[in-house]
Amino acid sequence: MALAGTKTKAIAALGALALILAVGAYAGGYIGLPFGPIPKVAIAATDTGPPSAEAANRASDGGHSADSLELTEKQRETVRVEAVTERAFPVEKQSVGSIDFNEDLTLQVFTPYQGRIIRLFAEVGDDVKKGQTLFTVDSPDLLQAESTLIAAAGVLELTTRSLARLKELYQSRAVSQKDLDQAVSDQQTAEGNLRAARDAVRLFGKVDPDIDAIVARRVADPTLIVPSPIDGRITARNAAPGLFVQPGSAPAPYSVANVSTMWMLANVAESDSPALHVGQEVTVNVAAFPDKVFEGKISTVGSIVDPNTRRVLVRSEVADPRHELRSGMFANFVIRTGDPMRSPGVPLDGVVREGDGTMTVWVTTDRRRFTKRTVRIGLERDGYRQILEGLRLGELIATDGAIFLSNMLATARPQ
Asked: Which helix (H) or strand (E) is 209 found in, with range?
Protein backbone atom coordinates (compact mmCIF):
# COMPACT_ATOMS: atom_id res chain seq x y z
CA MET A 1 0.00 0.00 0.00
CA ALA A 2 2.86 2.39 0.84
CA LEU A 3 4.53 1.61 -2.48
CA ALA A 4 1.35 2.31 -4.41
CA GLY A 5 0.89 5.63 -2.68
CA THR A 6 4.41 6.65 -3.52
CA LYS A 7 3.87 5.90 -7.23
CA THR A 8 0.64 7.89 -7.23
CA LYS A 9 2.38 10.93 -5.73
CA ALA A 10 5.22 10.68 -8.28
CA ILE A 11 2.81 10.59 -11.21
CA ALA A 12 0.93 13.62 -9.84
CA ALA A 13 4.21 15.54 -9.44
CA LEU A 14 5.24 14.83 -13.04
CA GLY A 15 1.82 16.00 -14.32
CA ALA A 16 2.13 19.26 -12.38
CA LEU A 17 5.62 19.83 -13.77
CA ALA A 18 4.38 19.32 -17.36
CA LEU A 19 1.54 21.80 -16.80
CA ILE A 20 3.98 24.41 -15.43
CA LEU A 21 6.30 23.99 -18.42
CA ALA A 22 3.41 24.35 -20.90
CA VAL A 23 2.12 27.53 -19.24
CA GLY A 24 5.63 28.98 -19.13
CA ALA A 25 6.22 28.22 -22.83
CA TYR A 26 3.05 30.02 -23.83
CA ALA A 27 3.57 33.05 -21.59
CA GLY A 28 7.30 33.63 -21.78
CA GLY A 29 8.66 32.31 -25.04
CA TYR A 30 10.53 29.16 -24.19
CA ILE A 31 12.27 27.46 -21.28
CA GLY A 32 15.54 25.70 -21.87
CA LEU A 33 15.16 21.95 -21.84
CA PRO A 34 17.66 19.23 -22.63
CA PHE A 35 15.98 18.50 -25.98
CA GLY A 36 15.84 22.15 -27.17
CA PRO A 37 13.52 25.22 -27.01
CA ILE A 38 9.78 25.15 -27.24
CA PRO A 39 8.76 27.81 -29.94
CA LYS A 40 6.28 30.57 -29.19
CA VAL A 41 2.83 29.84 -30.64
CA ALA A 42 1.20 32.65 -32.69
CA ILE A 43 -2.53 32.24 -32.33
CA ALA A 44 -3.12 34.62 -35.28
CA ALA A 45 -1.43 32.12 -37.59
CA THR A 46 -4.29 29.70 -37.11
CA ASP A 47 -6.66 32.21 -38.73
CA THR A 48 -6.68 31.29 -42.42
CA GLY A 49 -9.41 33.78 -43.39
CA PRO A 50 -8.75 37.11 -45.18
CA PRO A 51 -7.38 39.99 -43.10
CA SER A 52 -9.85 42.57 -41.92
CA ALA A 53 -9.87 46.09 -43.37
CA GLU A 54 -8.54 47.39 -40.05
CA ALA A 55 -5.60 45.02 -40.16
CA ALA A 56 -4.91 45.74 -43.84
CA ASN A 57 -4.77 49.50 -43.27
CA ARG A 58 -2.83 49.41 -39.98
CA ALA A 59 -0.25 52.23 -39.91
CA SER A 60 3.35 51.13 -40.43
CA ASP A 61 4.79 53.07 -37.49
CA GLY A 62 6.36 50.14 -35.71
CA GLY A 63 3.31 47.91 -35.36
CA HIS A 64 3.77 44.54 -37.02
CA SER A 65 0.62 43.44 -38.82
CA ALA A 66 0.00 40.22 -40.69
CA ASP A 67 0.40 42.23 -43.96
CA SER A 68 3.91 43.47 -43.18
CA LEU A 69 7.24 42.41 -44.61
CA GLU A 70 10.76 43.22 -43.45
CA LEU A 71 13.26 43.14 -46.30
CA THR A 72 16.91 42.26 -46.28
CA GLU A 73 19.45 44.72 -47.64
CA LYS A 74 19.64 42.84 -50.93
CA GLN A 75 15.86 42.73 -51.28
CA ARG A 76 15.61 46.48 -50.62
CA GLU A 77 17.78 47.11 -53.68
CA THR A 78 14.96 45.80 -55.90
CA VAL A 79 12.36 48.15 -54.44
CA ARG A 80 12.10 51.84 -55.22
CA VAL A 81 10.56 54.13 -52.60
CA GLU A 82 8.91 57.46 -53.38
CA ALA A 83 6.90 60.01 -51.45
CA VAL A 84 3.23 60.60 -52.26
CA THR A 85 2.89 63.94 -54.05
CA GLU A 86 -0.02 66.13 -55.08
CA ARG A 87 -0.86 66.13 -58.78
CA ALA A 88 -3.53 67.63 -61.04
CA PHE A 89 -5.97 65.14 -62.55
CA PRO A 90 -8.25 66.58 -65.25
CA VAL A 91 -11.92 65.63 -65.17
CA GLU A 92 -12.46 63.85 -68.48
CA LYS A 93 -14.74 61.48 -70.32
CA GLN A 94 -13.32 59.04 -72.86
CA SER A 95 -14.94 57.47 -75.88
CA VAL A 96 -14.18 56.13 -79.33
CA GLY A 97 -15.37 57.26 -82.73
CA SER A 98 -14.28 58.09 -86.25
CA ILE A 99 -13.08 60.97 -88.38
CA ASP A 100 -15.29 62.38 -91.14
CA PHE A 101 -15.33 65.34 -93.51
CA ASN A 102 -16.86 68.57 -92.28
CA GLU A 103 -20.11 68.51 -94.21
CA ASP A 104 -20.64 72.21 -93.53
CA LEU A 105 -17.52 72.85 -95.62
CA THR A 106 -18.16 70.20 -98.28
CA LEU A 107 -19.62 71.26 -101.64
CA GLN A 108 -20.95 69.32 -104.60
CA VAL A 109 -19.76 70.84 -107.86
CA PHE A 110 -22.36 70.81 -110.66
CA THR A 111 -22.16 72.28 -114.13
CA PRO A 112 -24.17 75.53 -114.37
CA TYR A 113 -25.49 74.49 -117.80
CA GLN A 114 -26.08 71.15 -119.45
CA GLY A 115 -23.65 69.58 -121.86
CA ARG A 116 -21.19 66.76 -122.33
CA ILE A 117 -17.96 66.56 -120.38
CA ILE A 118 -14.90 67.16 -122.57
CA ARG A 119 -11.99 66.74 -120.17
CA LEU A 120 -11.24 66.14 -116.47
CA PHE A 121 -8.49 67.95 -114.58
CA ALA A 122 -8.62 66.51 -111.02
CA GLU A 123 -8.59 63.14 -109.32
CA VAL A 124 -9.94 61.97 -105.96
CA GLY A 125 -7.56 63.03 -103.21
CA ASP A 126 -6.12 66.00 -105.10
CA ASP A 127 -5.85 69.28 -103.23
CA VAL A 128 -7.26 72.14 -105.32
CA LYS A 129 -7.46 75.90 -105.03
CA LYS A 130 -10.48 78.10 -105.46
CA GLY A 131 -10.96 78.83 -109.18
CA GLN A 132 -8.87 75.86 -110.33
CA THR A 133 -10.45 74.03 -113.30
CA LEU A 134 -12.07 70.70 -112.40
CA PHE A 135 -13.62 69.77 -115.76
CA THR A 136 -14.83 71.27 -119.01
CA VAL A 137 -18.18 70.86 -120.76
CA ASP A 138 -19.24 71.25 -124.39
CA SER A 139 -22.20 73.52 -123.74
CA PRO A 140 -24.75 74.42 -126.46
CA ASP A 141 -26.09 77.15 -124.17
CA LEU A 142 -22.69 78.81 -124.06
CA LEU A 143 -22.42 78.52 -127.82
CA GLN A 144 -25.77 80.29 -128.19
CA ALA A 145 -24.79 83.03 -125.77
CA GLU A 146 -21.50 83.69 -127.54
CA SER A 147 -23.23 83.74 -130.92
CA THR A 148 -25.63 86.34 -129.60
CA LEU A 149 -22.66 88.33 -128.30
CA ILE A 150 -20.94 88.29 -131.70
CA ALA A 151 -24.14 89.35 -133.43
CA ALA A 152 -24.75 92.16 -130.92
CA ALA A 153 -21.23 93.42 -131.39
CA GLY A 154 -21.74 93.44 -135.16
CA VAL A 155 -25.01 95.33 -134.91
CA LEU A 156 -23.42 97.90 -132.61
CA GLU A 157 -20.55 98.41 -135.01
CA LEU A 158 -23.01 98.87 -137.91
CA THR A 159 -25.27 101.31 -136.07
CA THR A 160 -22.28 103.29 -134.86
CA ARG A 161 -20.98 103.78 -138.41
CA SER A 162 -24.50 104.62 -139.63
CA LEU A 163 -24.93 107.22 -136.92
CA ALA A 164 -21.62 108.84 -137.75
CA ARG A 165 -22.57 109.06 -141.45
CA LEU A 166 -26.02 110.53 -140.72
CA LYS A 167 -24.48 113.19 -138.49
CA GLU A 168 -22.34 114.37 -141.42
CA LEU A 169 -25.33 114.36 -143.75
CA TYR A 170 -27.45 116.23 -141.23
CA GLN A 171 -24.89 119.01 -141.08
CA SER A 172 -25.28 119.45 -144.85
CA ARG A 173 -29.06 119.21 -144.52
CA ALA A 174 -29.10 116.03 -146.61
CA VAL A 175 -31.19 114.11 -144.03
CA SER A 176 -33.96 115.15 -141.72
CA GLN A 177 -33.89 115.40 -137.96
CA LYS A 178 -36.16 112.38 -137.79
CA ASP A 179 -33.66 110.19 -139.61
CA LEU A 180 -30.86 111.32 -137.29
CA ASP A 181 -32.92 110.62 -134.18
CA GLN A 182 -33.75 107.14 -135.46
CA ALA A 183 -30.07 106.42 -136.02
CA VAL A 184 -29.25 107.59 -132.49
CA SER A 185 -31.97 105.30 -131.10
CA ASP A 186 -30.74 102.32 -133.09
CA GLN A 187 -27.17 102.88 -131.89
CA GLN A 188 -28.24 103.10 -128.23
CA THR A 189 -30.33 99.95 -128.60
CA ALA A 190 -27.35 98.12 -130.07
CA GLU A 191 -25.18 99.23 -127.16
CA GLY A 192 -27.74 97.88 -124.69
CA ASN A 193 -27.99 94.58 -126.54
CA LEU A 194 -24.22 94.21 -126.50
CA ARG A 195 -24.04 94.83 -122.75
CA ALA A 196 -26.76 92.23 -122.17
CA ALA A 197 -24.93 89.75 -124.41
CA ARG A 198 -21.67 90.29 -122.53
CA ASP A 199 -23.46 89.74 -119.20
CA ALA A 200 -25.03 86.55 -120.53
CA VAL A 201 -21.62 85.19 -121.52
CA ARG A 202 -20.19 86.31 -118.18
CA LEU A 203 -22.67 84.01 -116.44
CA PHE A 204 -20.79 81.05 -117.92
CA GLY A 205 -17.65 82.04 -116.07
CA LYS A 206 -16.06 84.11 -118.83
CA VAL A 207 -14.19 87.23 -117.80
CA ASP A 208 -13.87 90.48 -119.74
CA PRO A 209 -10.60 89.54 -121.51
CA ASP A 210 -12.24 86.31 -122.70
CA ILE A 211 -15.31 88.18 -123.93
CA ASP A 212 -13.19 90.78 -125.74
CA ALA A 213 -11.27 87.98 -127.45
CA ILE A 214 -14.52 86.35 -128.64
CA VAL A 215 -15.74 89.66 -130.07
CA ALA A 216 -12.40 90.42 -131.71
CA ARG A 217 -12.01 87.00 -133.33
CA ARG A 218 -15.70 86.59 -134.12
CA VAL A 219 -15.34 82.93 -133.05
CA ALA A 220 -17.64 81.23 -130.51
CA ASP A 221 -16.03 78.73 -128.14
CA PRO A 222 -18.58 76.32 -126.59
CA THR A 223 -16.10 75.04 -123.98
CA LEU A 224 -17.55 75.71 -120.55
CA ILE A 225 -14.97 75.67 -117.72
CA VAL A 226 -16.21 74.45 -114.32
CA PRO A 227 -13.85 75.59 -111.50
CA SER A 228 -13.57 74.61 -107.85
CA PRO A 229 -15.67 76.95 -105.69
CA ILE A 230 -13.39 76.61 -102.63
CA ASP A 231 -9.93 75.57 -101.52
CA GLY A 232 -10.08 71.92 -100.54
CA ARG A 233 -9.62 68.29 -101.43
CA ILE A 234 -11.47 66.22 -104.01
CA THR A 235 -13.50 63.72 -102.00
CA ALA A 236 -15.59 62.19 -104.80
CA ARG A 237 -15.62 62.10 -108.62
CA ASN A 238 -18.52 60.81 -110.70
CA ALA A 239 -17.46 62.40 -113.97
CA ALA A 240 -16.09 60.88 -117.16
CA PRO A 241 -15.38 62.28 -120.63
CA GLY A 242 -18.49 62.17 -122.82
CA LEU A 243 -20.88 61.98 -119.88
CA PHE A 244 -23.94 64.23 -120.31
CA VAL A 245 -24.42 66.39 -117.20
CA GLN A 246 -27.13 68.80 -116.12
CA PRO A 247 -27.37 71.38 -113.33
CA GLY A 248 -28.39 69.76 -110.03
CA SER A 249 -28.61 66.25 -111.50
CA ALA A 250 -27.23 63.72 -108.99
CA PRO A 251 -24.63 62.49 -108.58
CA ALA A 252 -22.52 65.60 -108.74
CA PRO A 253 -19.50 65.31 -111.06
CA TYR A 254 -17.19 66.37 -108.22
CA SER A 255 -17.30 66.88 -104.45
CA VAL A 256 -14.80 69.19 -102.77
CA ALA A 257 -14.25 69.47 -99.01
CA ASN A 258 -12.30 72.01 -97.04
CA VAL A 259 -10.12 69.69 -94.94
CA SER A 260 -8.57 72.35 -92.71
CA THR A 261 -11.32 71.38 -90.26
CA MET A 262 -12.57 67.82 -89.84
CA TRP A 263 -15.47 66.30 -87.95
CA MET A 264 -14.98 63.88 -85.08
CA LEU A 265 -17.99 61.65 -84.48
CA ALA A 266 -18.09 59.86 -81.11
CA ASN A 267 -20.77 57.68 -79.55
CA VAL A 268 -20.67 58.35 -75.81
CA ALA A 269 -22.45 56.41 -73.10
CA GLU A 270 -25.90 57.63 -72.14
CA SER A 271 -24.75 58.09 -68.54
CA ASP A 272 -21.93 60.45 -69.66
CA SER A 273 -24.09 62.65 -71.88
CA PRO A 274 -25.28 65.10 -69.15
CA ALA A 275 -21.66 66.21 -68.62
CA LEU A 276 -21.15 67.13 -72.30
CA HIS A 277 -21.90 70.57 -73.71
CA VAL A 278 -21.24 72.52 -76.90
CA GLY A 279 -17.91 74.33 -76.75
CA GLN A 280 -16.09 71.86 -74.48
CA GLU A 281 -12.54 71.03 -75.51
CA VAL A 282 -11.65 67.60 -76.84
CA THR A 283 -8.39 65.89 -77.71
CA VAL A 284 -8.12 63.17 -80.34
CA ASN A 285 -5.57 60.44 -81.00
CA VAL A 286 -5.47 58.31 -84.14
CA ALA A 287 -3.40 55.19 -84.81
CA ALA A 288 -1.72 56.78 -87.84
CA PHE A 289 -0.15 59.47 -85.61
CA PRO A 290 0.23 57.86 -82.16
CA ASP A 291 2.45 60.63 -80.78
CA LYS A 292 0.30 63.52 -81.97
CA VAL A 293 -2.74 65.07 -80.30
CA PHE A 294 -5.37 66.92 -82.31
CA GLU A 295 -7.35 69.65 -80.56
CA GLY A 296 -10.97 70.51 -81.13
CA LYS A 297 -14.29 71.55 -79.59
CA ILE A 298 -17.72 69.99 -79.37
CA SER A 299 -20.06 71.48 -81.97
CA THR A 300 -23.14 69.27 -81.53
CA VAL A 301 -24.52 66.98 -78.82
CA GLY A 302 -27.19 64.65 -80.18
CA SER A 303 -30.73 64.87 -78.84
CA ILE A 304 -31.51 61.19 -79.43
CA VAL A 305 -30.27 58.11 -77.57
CA ASP A 306 -29.74 55.09 -79.80
CA PRO A 307 -32.23 52.49 -78.53
CA ASN A 308 -29.89 49.61 -79.40
CA THR A 309 -26.54 50.85 -78.06
CA ARG A 310 -27.82 53.37 -75.46
CA ARG A 311 -25.33 55.91 -76.73
CA VAL A 312 -25.49 59.55 -77.83
CA LEU A 313 -23.79 60.98 -80.92
CA VAL A 314 -21.35 63.80 -80.16
CA ARG A 315 -19.83 65.78 -83.02
CA SER A 316 -16.71 67.88 -82.64
CA GLU A 317 -14.70 70.07 -84.98
CA VAL A 318 -10.94 69.61 -84.95
CA ALA A 319 -8.36 71.75 -86.68
CA ASP A 320 -6.19 69.90 -89.21
CA PRO A 321 -4.05 72.57 -90.90
CA ARG A 322 -1.58 70.02 -92.27
CA HIS A 323 -4.34 67.85 -93.77
CA GLU A 324 -3.18 64.72 -91.93
CA LEU A 325 -6.54 63.28 -90.90
CA ARG A 326 -8.50 61.05 -93.26
CA SER A 327 -12.19 60.34 -93.32
CA GLY A 328 -12.97 56.99 -91.73
CA MET A 329 -9.97 56.93 -89.36
CA PHE A 330 -10.66 55.24 -86.02
CA ALA A 331 -10.00 57.66 -83.16
CA ASN A 332 -9.92 57.85 -79.37
CA PHE A 333 -11.62 60.90 -77.89
CA VAL A 334 -10.99 62.58 -74.54
CA ILE A 335 -13.55 65.23 -73.59
CA ARG A 336 -12.73 67.66 -70.78
CA THR A 337 -15.83 68.06 -68.64
CA GLY A 338 -14.47 70.09 -65.72
CA ASP A 339 -11.55 71.83 -64.05
CA PRO A 340 -8.61 69.62 -62.97
CA MET A 341 -8.71 68.05 -59.48
CA ARG A 342 -5.64 68.20 -57.23
CA SER A 343 -5.22 64.95 -55.28
CA PRO A 344 -2.49 62.62 -54.00
CA GLY A 345 -0.99 60.70 -56.89
CA VAL A 346 1.31 57.69 -57.10
CA PRO A 347 3.05 56.03 -60.07
CA LEU A 348 1.06 53.29 -61.77
CA ASP A 349 3.58 50.63 -60.66
CA GLY A 350 2.95 51.55 -57.04
CA VAL A 351 -0.68 50.34 -57.09
CA VAL A 352 -1.29 46.58 -57.06
CA ARG A 353 -4.60 44.94 -57.95
CA GLU A 354 -5.21 42.04 -55.60
CA GLY A 355 -6.99 38.82 -56.46
CA ASP A 356 -10.22 40.00 -54.85
CA GLY A 357 -10.21 43.20 -56.93
CA THR A 358 -9.03 45.57 -54.19
CA MET A 359 -6.25 48.05 -54.90
CA THR A 360 -3.31 48.18 -52.49
CA VAL A 361 -0.04 50.02 -51.93
CA TRP A 362 2.99 49.21 -49.77
CA VAL A 363 3.73 51.89 -47.15
CA THR A 364 6.99 52.27 -45.20
CA THR A 365 8.51 54.65 -42.69
CA ASP A 366 12.04 53.28 -42.43
CA ARG A 367 12.46 51.80 -45.95
CA ARG A 368 12.96 48.37 -44.34
CA ARG A 369 9.55 47.25 -43.15
CA PHE A 370 6.67 47.59 -45.64
CA THR A 371 2.99 47.31 -44.80
CA LYS A 372 0.25 46.64 -47.33
CA ARG A 373 -2.61 49.14 -47.27
CA THR A 374 -5.89 49.16 -49.17
CA VAL A 375 -6.63 52.38 -51.11
CA ARG A 376 -9.40 53.75 -53.30
CA ILE A 377 -8.21 54.94 -56.71
CA GLY A 378 -9.58 57.47 -59.16
CA LEU A 379 -8.35 58.95 -62.43
CA GLU A 380 -5.20 58.11 -64.37
CA ARG A 381 -2.99 60.73 -65.99
CA ASP A 382 0.59 60.86 -67.33
CA GLY A 383 1.66 57.62 -65.63
CA TYR A 384 0.13 58.48 -62.23
CA ARG A 385 -2.94 57.13 -60.46
CA GLN A 386 -5.19 59.35 -58.36
CA ILE A 387 -5.64 58.20 -54.74
CA LEU A 388 -9.01 59.12 -53.27
CA GLU A 389 -8.65 57.36 -49.91
CA GLY A 390 -5.95 55.52 -47.98
CA LEU A 391 -2.86 57.72 -48.39
CA ARG A 392 -1.65 61.08 -47.20
CA LEU A 393 0.73 63.47 -48.90
CA GLY A 394 4.36 62.81 -48.00
CA GLU A 395 3.96 59.15 -47.03
CA LEU A 396 6.57 56.80 -48.44
CA ILE A 397 5.41 53.96 -50.67
CA ALA A 398 7.03 51.31 -52.83
CA THR A 399 6.71 52.01 -56.55
CA ASP A 400 8.97 49.79 -58.63
CA GLY A 401 8.83 46.41 -56.89
CA ALA A 402 5.39 46.73 -55.30
CA ILE A 403 4.16 43.64 -57.13
CA PHE A 404 7.28 41.84 -55.85
CA LEU A 405 6.22 42.61 -52.27
CA SER A 406 2.70 41.33 -52.90
CA ASN A 407 4.08 38.10 -54.31
CA MET A 408 6.39 37.69 -51.30
CA LEU A 409 3.48 38.10 -48.89
CA ALA A 410 1.33 35.63 -50.81
CA THR A 411 4.15 33.08 -50.74
CA ALA A 412 4.85 33.53 -47.03
CA ARG A 413 1.21 33.01 -45.96
CA PRO A 414 0.14 29.47 -45.08
CA GLN A 415 -1.97 27.89 -47.81
From this structure: helix 208-217
